[in-house]
Description:
The chain has one domain: sialyltransferase cstii, chain A, CATH 3.90.1480. It is 40% helix and 12% strand. It is built from twelve helices and nine strands. It has helices at residues 19-30, 34-40, 60-64, 83-86, 109-115, 130-141, 152-162, 168-176, 203-207, 209-220, 230-243, 251-257, and strands at residues 4-5, 44-48, 68-72, 92-94, 118-121, 127-128, 147-149, 183-187, 247-249. The chain has a seven-stranded parallel beta sheet. Strands 1-6 form a two-stranded parallel ribbon. Helix 1 (19-30) packs antiparallel against helix 7 (152-162).
Amino acid sequence: MNLYQEPPKLQGVPSELDAKHYKYLAERFGKHDNNFNEFVKDKKVIIVGPSPSLEGTNVGEFIDSFDLVVRINKGYPVEPTMIKDIGSRVDIHYHCFHEGDNTGGPIFYDEMIKDNVYVCCPYPKYVMPFHIDVDRFEKTNQDRLRFHYIGTEFYMYLASLIKTRPNSGINTILDLLAYDVKELYVTGFTFFKDGWRKTYKDHVAIFGEEEGTKLEKQWLEGQFDGNHQQQPQMDIVRDLYLNDDRFNIDDTMKEILEVK
């Protein structure tokens, strides 16, 4: 088994990843999982993100009307108080497999088995440091849940071009668009300009008042830990929206990305 080191994360270096490069990589390396492709093929898919922008929108029925509903990290189980705004269904759950309170959160194996959820990792199996978490998941899962992960070569090229580690949510977009989905709609993503729904992730509750407030302020001001630079991720999402007819985003994302 060959393990690769994650490409370096370079702050201040312009991204080289655009829709043209992405399309080439997706066609050559992206669609590596035939079983997963059969599951999503010709489906209308929606990804629901963790932003507070969905609070009070009453779009839950709209979200649940899609063929497949995708949620990320702490998005499963669905917050009961948010169902009218974010829907109730979960068909695909992308989880980074790091179970810390400040990252992906717990993996609910039994509940997902009962709900017949397709579990996906937005990071590759054979790249460090992700291999540690994916390997632990596989040993615990023991083939009980259907499982998919983003391709190694695909991710390595993407990360090398974008110069940062894409968030779990952005990798979810990049992974799904490599497959034969009929439509991909994304809502509840604001590139952390408004943080997270408190029901999804509450830094104060996790770390206490002083440290939690400090961390939330850093995220809102774009002071990340160096792993996830947001601007190059915004740039590729904008370019894909403008160049892939299958891909659509909500009005909040359009405003942030300054597109119509």
